Amino acid sequence: MVHRNALMHNVETSTTMTKMYSGKWARGIENQFIHDMRAHQVTLLPYPIQNDLTKALRQQAIEHKDESVTHLWAGQGLRITREMAVSQLMTTLEYETDLTFRRNLNTSE
């Protein structure tokens, strides 16, 4: 629920590339943990060591719904995020895909 809330209330300019949680590059929503780690110029360890070091922190943050320290992975399309049930998502994807194909057929004639 914390991750969903963050996805719904942020935009792509809220994301950053970080190695802070795992030691591998990933795009996530910038939060206090990422900011503090960067500000203190913490030396990160490689994956999987960094991932193991932050595992308990991430688990506790999720359990306590603490958005300030949990990992909030997100791509660059946050602005187009829509909240809906999976069944509605599948129907919407089918409709939008069909619509796109129809438009492409009409423009190629």
From TrEMBL:
The organism's place on the tree of life at top rank: Bacteria
Gene Ontology terms for molecular function: nitronate monooxygenase activity
Stored Pfam families: NMO
Protein name per the record: Uncharacterized protein
